[in-house]
Amino acid sequence: MFDDKDADPAAIKELEEKFDPEVRFRPLGKVAAGIAATLLFLLSCFHYYTAGFGLLREVNHRGVHLAFVLSLIFIVFAATKKGQEQLYPSSLWRPFGIPVIDWLLAIAAIAASLYVPYIFDDLAFRVGNPLPIDVIMGTVMIVVLLEATRRAMGWPLPVIAIVIMAYGLFGQYAPGVLVHPGADWRMLVNHLYLTSQGIYGLPVGVVATYVFHFVLFGVLATRIGLGRLFIDIAMAIAGRYSGGPAKVSVFSSALLGSISGSSIANTVTTGALTIPAMIRIGYQRHFAAAVEAASSTGGQITPPVMGAAAFLMIEFLGVSYSTIITAAIVPAFMHFFGVLCQVHFEAKRLGLRGLTRDELPRVGAILKRDWPTVIPLIILISILLQGFTPYLAAFYAITACIVIGLVNPLNRITWRDVLDAFILGAKYALAVGAAAATVGIIIGVVTLTGVSFKIAYMVTSTAGTWASAIAPFIPFGIMGVSTLTLLITLILTAMVCIVMGCGIPTTATYLIMVSVAAPVLGLLGVAPLVAHFFVFYYGVLADITPPVALAAYAGAGIANANPFRAGNTAFRLGMGKALVPFVFVFAPSLLIVVDDFSWFRFFLAFTGTVIGITALSAAFAGWLAGPLYRVERWLLGIAAALLVAPEVVSTSVGLVLVAAVVARQLFFSGAEPEAPDAASA
């Protein structure tokens, strides 16, 4: 059923480049490609060596990292769309096929990146009173950083950075509570360039010491066959059930996502196999694309890797890695459970079959062939759980990948493959490196102006006013003013996260929203861990939220489906991910590691959420044990909203509504209604 010819590497690469600007590299001639490959390999070697044998002094390490990342972006990313598609011959104005301006920008990036850690030697005496040369170098750094970020991931993030810098400069003209005295360019550059509160701040530090290593690990783990093992295991476990390929998509994306933080890469990698198979057994094309996209976005919230956000949380919150992955377990389960429920009900509604015994691989044969590929992942997790640093764990995991790949006769790789993996891993890390530094600009202005607390006051005041107006109309006093205020604040925050995430990668969205939105939630008594998870989950949701649902559009490209329809369906399939953050804000025990954890509140929230997600999935699909009347779908939708509110009264009412629909299905089915066409939308 899963035909290898569906997984054409060239087609997968083309789709990934089409929908993910972070891997849209320009074609290079032989000499330029050699220069880029050498620098990329050295960048990976630098991070691999320092992870195992000791990091440089903080600012030096970040400076070297930025020098490599920013200069390489000007070599491998073109300034225009035409430059991304066309290979130019070498000439006076295009040495080795790359414009002179790009070489100059690369050199400027190196100089500006290394100026602070290696040339600016009397930092303690000049911070707050920069010399003209300091301002010049800082200006160069900001310009090359914004242009590098634009090339690597488009306009949205640089535009936000420019707007926030304008606010820092002209804050005296801002309206209302947003007003501040303003800063001149000299002092703004001083704060963003010469201190650890800006470009050289925490975001770049996390990428340079954690994220890069896990990107490299993911590339190597996939190269030695761990991704294939995950897909085959998922097929052996889930393929036999109704609508088997769709369930394989959910399980394989969950497993593969545990080592990869990219929604789009997961979509095109597993989707190349699962989407054609889903279409062959009867799923509509847009639904098949949506299933893969919704499943793949779960990779960023699935332990143990969780993309970059897990390690950013470690630094921001000052908690252990085990705390973060423990907190992520239940919400990640809820996301995949929600997608699986909708896939199952859709399969039942359409009467789709599973895979036959002959079409399924054997678990024993899979493990016999690929079991060594799991060893690096086991090493990674075990070292992390022992409390060692993430980069040291990544060092040993990467080393294990290399050793196992070289000695395993069934999945043997060569030293050339290792070289290619080091080059590709560095390439994939360039965009997030630039994004982290640009987010440093945004965070720097936020700390300089104190705007986050002003925004927090505005949002909570507005939410409180609305809550006071709405509360008298809530029946039975289910929600008081304080609860409604928090709910409205969460809705506003979620909307901003989704809008921000439409044009900005998850990591950048998380960093910005933590700086701006976390203080808002903190004013309402939300614990920092809970607030961080909330904004992170809604940032991830943007990958399947129209109009810029990039993961869904990538899936639609494989399925030859309508992209907007696929995006709408993917968002519907991901509703579990949309509901669960509200649940763990009102019932933090769902994250397990919170201070006031209670088993009673945990089981109340867990049970209510599971039943609520099931009810909502049935309402969307128009099917439970059989077809549903329209009124039953509405009742299940209302029940779902009540069940995910972790209160005894609301849970009880929700259970009564679900029980009524189930009773009608089981005992009074009579003449069944037709499943509505809208159920498959």
From TrEMBL:
Protein name in the entry: TRAP transporter, 4TM/12TM fusion protein
Membrane topology designation: Multi-pass membrane protein
Outline the extent of the TRAP C4-dicarboxylate transport system permease DctM subunit domain. Answer: 140-593
Where can this protein be found? Cell inner membrane
Q: Which UniProt keywords apply?
A: Cell inner membrane, Cell membrane, Membrane, Transmembrane, Transmembrane helix, Transport
Identify the domain of life. Answer: Bacteria
TM region(s), chain numbering: 31-51, 63-80, 100-119, 155-179, 199-221, 321-345, 374-407, 428-453, 473-498, 510-538, 544-562, 574-594, 600-623, 635-663
Alphabetical GO CC annotations of the entry are: plasma membrane
